[in-house]
Amino acid sequence: MKNPWLKLSILLLMWLSLCKLSFGADTITANKSLSGNQTIVSSGGNFVLGFFAPGSSSNYYIGIWYGKISEQTPVWVANRDTPVRDIHSSKLKISDGNLVLTNGSQVEIWSTNISSSNSSSVVAVLEDAGNLVLRDGPNSSAPLWQSLDHPAHTWLPGGKLSLNKRTNRSQLLTSWKNSEDPAPGLFSLELDPAGANTYFIRWNGTRQYWSSGPWDEQLRIFRNVPEMRLNYLYNFSFLYNFSFHSDENESYFTYSLHTNQTTSRLIMHYSGQIQDQSWLESNRQWNLFWSMPGQQCQVYAFCGSFGSCNEIDLPFCSCLRGFHPKSETNWNLSDFSDGCERTTRLQCEEDPNLVPGKTDKFLESPNVKLPERAQAMSVGSMLECESACLEYCNCTAYAYDRDGCRIWMTELLDLQQYSGDTSNGRTIYIRLAASEFRSSSNNNGIIIGAVAGGVGLVLCLMIFVILRWRRRRMINPKVEGSLLAFGYRDLQSATKNFSEKLGGGGFGSVFKGTLPDLSIIAVKQLESISQGEKQFRSEVSTIGAVQHVNLVRLRGFCSEGMNKLLVYDYMPNGSLDAHLFLEDNSKPLAWKTRYQIALGTARGLTYLHEKCRDCIIHCDIKPENILLDAELCPKVADFGLAKLIGREFSRVLTTMRGTRGYLAPEWISGVAITSKADVYSYGMMLFEIVSGRRNSEQNEEGKVGFFPTSVARAITQDGDVLSLLDPRLNEDAPVDEISRICKAACWCVQDDETHRPSMGQVVQILEGVLDVNVPPVPRSLQVLANNTEHIIFFTESSSSPSSQTPSNSSNASS
């Protein structure tokens, strides 16, 4: 280029254009201000500071977000309560020794609000750990102010949530209002102001609804967050190192990451849960590792006033009948904090001169968790309790049960709808305007005409039913909740007097049957049932309410005297053991199918352990209890039967009959059984899915081999995982998937149940979301491997220890 001035002008324009996008540095000085699309970037590029608008919002905020992930995710916001609309006239700058934000009218709307001895030398630096630091000069080491001391909703590594012992004030981690509004929400995490080493989550700064439990210095976990222990047992990408500090001025916890390979964060989510998340760039999303409280409805008043929370389906929140959301916009953003308001005002509110409550009525709402802040009334009947509520126009509801009469004179908060039968459920009567109820008088003429016109039709239908019943005896079960209540003779007829046996085991025998609509069922005759009629029906209703694609559906039951039967969907491909342990030349299950069976089973168990209102422990996971539908989709069978059988189930669960066994060590030690016992059994089953044979088998030379120890050697020593695969598959399987499933299995069968992952974490491992380290070899497996020839499992019904043939495949499990 011949003209040097033209060349210089072009370079100057390029530089000015670049300045509009980014300073290209990590510092704001006294002669620089940040506005528009300008940003500063930390030295390593990990974090960016600038203006941002969350979601589809037209409000802008000064914030810090991650610089190396594809989704803009703020970790800190300055002007949470005071957004700006015009970012080009708004400025973030150094003024009088402070970092301040001014709006388009040059009015200061946010400031670090400190005193500085030399205001002209103050600089703001964005560090690579996400900390925005104000220093008295670029060479000063002591910060005048730093954003880590003023957290928003994200607890970054290196930050602290402290208790100031002099002022008795805690630093708060406060949720956003919703995904598009970073204004402080209702939920906050803080260190116990009383001085205990415990974190609380509070609603509206007052109501505590969750505690981390005390800090255990030896285990280095909070007692109520057992997932933290996995940070030390597994090589998960979000490995944390927590530390506690306390002196005469303050107490605080802080943490650091063991690795910089991935991005992890702890946030106080607007759902009211503290969440541990890690970023997966391959999926371009944040992956949830754990959240506390574990269930959404445990968050206090999550659905706001006159809202009802449920764990049955989404959305979690709904308004009570006669109410509607105060803000549809916020509800669409999963912000239910505004709650609901009446669709129709009460009559006593419309016309105070009327006798209070004469035209108001009450809607019965059964099986709910009652709200707090009720007033007890000394009355002797439900009618008197209702009248007591009607005496006050601001009385919103009443309840009358074994605890007497209670009325609510406030908005109803923390109302929860239970699913199925539960002993915790109560009935509340919600006050509504009379117009919310249908008037029966206006419909009398219509009803009478409909009845008269329908009599002939009813008579015809009765004749048709009687004639058909004579031709063919018809099963006509009653409906109880979501289940059908069959008669014993009906099931006897459907199964042809229980003639076609599908299988059997400790819980009872299973028979094939056909209903009049030609649908095929599996009928299980339960044994050792000593429960009364009411308790049995209650327990069965609980099992019937559990629905998941990887759980066998319970269709109905029969309870007539000593005859207790369960009716399930029929699974045409039988149980998993029939497809794994082949004795002929049948085609073996392909590896892809095996992997999907392992993953589907884990998902079903995760639902039982973590998604049901009460954790359901299966207690008998093994291939015989994993059924396969027509598409070879796995279905966990017999869940809930351990509770149904009662104390006798410990006897039937010892039915090993020649297999190595699936019982966790804690069964033998006598300690309380938790869901981790299922994890152990599932891990033992994973070994068999890989190998296609029982874990303990006798070879041609008469020696007994124990397959889990072979897995342990392969993944800890020689690394030859293909040698573990079922030889009938001819090594046709991805090595990474074999390695992943074997590592997961070894972690599942750890001796100490606290070392085992939850089933939810197993799902994440098998999905490839989480990577796990090489597990240690459990000592119990080593002992079993060294003493295999001396260990035989048998039941009380076994005639001798030599009874070692596996139990038959069953359709509703053995």
Structure description:
This protein has 814 residues and is α+β, with helices and mostly antiparallel strands. The chain folds into five domains: 21-150, Orthogonal Prism (Agglutinin, subunit A); 153-300, Agglutinin, subunit A (Orthogonal Prism); 343-436, Hepatocyte Growth Factor, CATH 3.50.4.10; 478-569, Phosphorylase Kinase, domain 1, CATH 3.30.200.20; 577-790, Transferase(Phosphotransferase) domain 1 (Transferase(Phosphotransferase), domain 1), CATH 1.10.510. It contains 18 helices and 47 strands. The protein has an eight-stranded mixed beta sheet with strand order 28-27-35-31-36-33-34-32, with helices on one face. Strand 42 (554-560) and strand 43 (563-569) form a beta hairpin. Helix 10 packs antiparallel against helix 14, helix 10 (591-611) runs antiparallel to helix 17 and helix 15 packs across helix 16 (735-748). The longest helix is centred in the middle third of the chain and has 28 residues, at 444-471. The radius of gyration is 33 Å and the shape is globular. The protein starts with a helix and ends in a 28-residue tail after the last helix. One of its GO terms (biological process) is recognition of pollen. The chain crosses the membrane at residues 446-467. Residues 496-770 form the Protein kinase domain.
